Amino acid sequence: MAHRHTGRPEIRYRYDSDGRVTEQLNPAGLSYTYQYEKDHITITDSLDRREVLHTQGEAGLKRVVKKEHADGSVTQSQFDAVGRLRAQTDAAGRTTEYSPDVVTGLITRITTPDGRASAFYYNHHSQLTSATGPDGLEIRREYDESGRLIQETAPDGDITRYRYDNPHSDLPCATDDATGSRKTMTWSRYGQLLSFTDCSGYQTRYDHDRFGQMTAVHREEGLSQYRAYDSRGQLIAVKDTQGHETRYEYNAAGDLTTVIAPDGSRNGTQYDAWGKAICTTQGGLTRSMEYDAAGRVIRLTSENGSHTTFRYDVLDRLIQETGFDGRTQRYHHDLTGKLIRSEDEGLVTHWYYDEADRLTHRTVNGETAEQWQYDERGWLTDISHISEGHRVTVHYGYDEKGRLTGERQTVHHPQTEALLWQHETRHAYNAQGLANRCIPDSLPAVEWLAYGSGYLAGMKLGDTPLVDFTRDRLHRETLRSFGRYELTTAYTPAGQLQSQHLNSLQYDRDYTWNDNGELIRISSPRQTRSYSYSTTGRLTGVHTTAANLDIRIPYATDPAGNRLPDPELHPDSTLSMWPDNRIARDAHYLYRYDRYGRLTEKTDLIPEGVIRTDDERTHRYHYDSQHRLVHYTRTQYEEPLVESRYLYDPLGRRVAKRVWRRERDLTGWMSLSRKPQVTWYGWDGDRLTTIQNDRSRIQTIYQPGSFTPLIRVETATGEQAKTQRRSLADTLQQSGGEDGGSVVFPPVLVQMLDRLESEILADRVSEESRRWLASCGLTVEQMQNQMDPVYTPARKIHLYHCDHRGLPLALISTEGATAWCAEYDEWGNLLNEENPHQLQQLIRLPGQQYDEESGLYYNRHRYYDPLQGRYITQDPIGLKGGWNFYQYPLNPISNIDPLGLETLKCIKPLHSMGGTGERSGPDIWGNPFYHQYLCVPDGKGDYTCGGQDQRGESKGDGLWGPGKASNDTKEAAGRCDLVETDNSCVENCLKGKFKEVRPRYSVLPDIFTPINLGLFKNCQDWSNDSLETCKMKCSGNNIGRFIRFVFTGVM
Q1: 219 lies in a domain?
Q2: How far apart are CA 235 and CA 474, in angstroms?
Q3: Keywords in UniProt for this one (predicted)?
Q4: Residue 344 β-bridge partners
């Protein structure tokens, strides 16, 4: 007996006399044999891997109670008399217990091996009414008499209400979110969404064909998108308002083989017989993948012809990776699959966990690295490590709803443990649950003013309004006001950025796009820049014209994206590629790398026969065990010119640098200064917000959800010192004893006093605090009199005027005057600067800070060399960040947000299980059965979405079979959550992810497959990892990524 799907090979089966399958034969994959005994089944695959399933019970009550895995490990399950799961024991002997309801069988309690429990409660219709997680947070749900969800309370207290106008329909006609904003929907009689009206009354309409497929989306501002399908229901064309059409072609099996752009260029993918992508071609450049019989990727071949290879254990876990440059990394796991040891060219890392599988610490070559601490609820509270001898700690605070309320970084002296640096940022939430207030270290509160469901309308610093935003019917920014500064933004009919005009003509810009959506021209009063691209979308040239200027700058790269000498400027060069992606020389320097692929030396290249004495310099770079740059030197003829050292916190964020420069001493001898120039850095999550040296403190306020700077606040160090004051708790402790001496308060009292002090300073004393004081016989006024006076220092405030990428072009004062301005090339190199007030403006491309001593840009997780347009070390997330580990986006001007909208994470029921709302089965928090995917603006008035799905074409595919791109739309989602606002780089990066070949599908989440290089993913992991990868690539975002990859071992 056999079966096959269209375009796929035939799968054959053999059966015994009892009708049981004994053999499954796959001509291009794994084949299986099945041996049956009374109480067990032995399954052997064609790689001679064996699993044994032990069973108990008869007929419909037969259950698998023990499983012997191919590596010899054993997992067990226990069931009650009616076949309901009661406990599962993993390979390490740890047991998870399940408590089902006696009558309904619904799970009412889950207790994990560490004793932490989750509880679930239901109504008489078996609908979940509340669930409490191990951390004590609760969700609640209410239903009407028809069983429809009418109200949901999230763990943070946010309430969403659902309204219905048809007593016979489960589809809501309106939802009210926690802010009180209402969104309305209309539906066809077949359950298709016809219109969606947002909280501002702006409507989006949808057209469908007779098969229920969405054929058109009509948005406000005249933006529409049209879609066409073939007879198999496959999307074959998408057309925007301006008639630009993208077409799609498929093979007989339904695999997407070709994407045809509006200009006719084609990107193709070839597949093997089982639908696994074996090569992708874009603009004539090809990448290929090879698989073993188990369908595991064993070899990647880059555009340069270089190879990366992989090895696995019998449980399909990655145990070795050898990169394109020969760098080899190995991984070891415990019985439950957790990473416990990794080896990287001499660096040996051990990983340690607690009973809840939370990482507690790790060691590198025997020395303790990071340490993690958690509170009784399981929330991360502290991370610490040693950096260059200094203990550096990050502390997190939360409110009772589990929301982050503060982050504090501290640096202590290596010998005395004295506190050298401390920086704290606090966060506050309004009654609707929006994080609308941030209290930066030593600054008044920053308050974000919003309308509707959180669209930005303005910003205040303390009680002073600073910035106002005006938006159109698509909530795109059209006007930004800051004092006398006014920036007007307009969009093309297709929704792309068309112009940005100031009331000062100096910074006006007009944008021109080609049919493929590539930016081809930026025009300003001073000059015009025109851009050319390769068929792969790489920037190949810039043509700059002005009154007395006409310059063409070409950019040449090898197939893998490494910079090459331009043939027009260097006609004698025979170099065609760098196979290992390590550039050894260019027109200016010679480069050397260590075995980890880190740049260790850069020396001026002196052409043969040329004698120069003033610039023959050598730059040397030294790193710690986490591949972070910790020591830099620049020498000339072995004489030091500059030296610098860097400190990092456990999350890899730089917290300090010390720089020694060459100077003349009292004897006239030139040598490095004895005392370094010290700079301290403070962070809010992944955004660098504070830079402090002996002269000033510069603080940056960013646009919400992005890395584009908005406001710059500078305070002289002398003024900053005057703001130092004792806290209320310290004041009372120093004189609170009965004899007038000091006393030590318990931590809970200190916390209450700190909260009271912050409320008094904000003039927002809560009723809870007033009642507490009254119970002590005290008043707010009495406590206020005990507080040290608050000194308000003189501050310089400027607005960042940035380009479309977030690169600062000017600093504008509240009077509308330009205090600083600069011009850059496309890779962030400074071309010209006007700085009459000697302001220190170090921000470059989003997430980058200029280091004057080295010429590099610190980019959160690595250092970027703008002269090369690439990083000096490899990407710490490996292949997840792209096949070229050094690469910066090869189209650095394309990171544009044409709609100014957002990135959404959406969920809906699994298509294989069905359901309505958000999940298959109970629509509740904690139910893992849902499909998750991402949606971003497509630049043409709608959203484009991407996700991971099972190929599911044959029984042989299995739960760990080949994956494919899921077919998703924003409109089909049960719920979409905003996860990133106004971040064009992230959106463009995700669009690239949507086009990539999907990894093999894994039914288990990442935590069970800790070595994760994108080779096995379910839909939830794929979307989460894609989002975090893009956030990190664009801005160095790594707070969550760091912890995630500590667990997965890809460092």
Answers
A1: no
A2: 26
A3: Repeat
A4: 329, 347
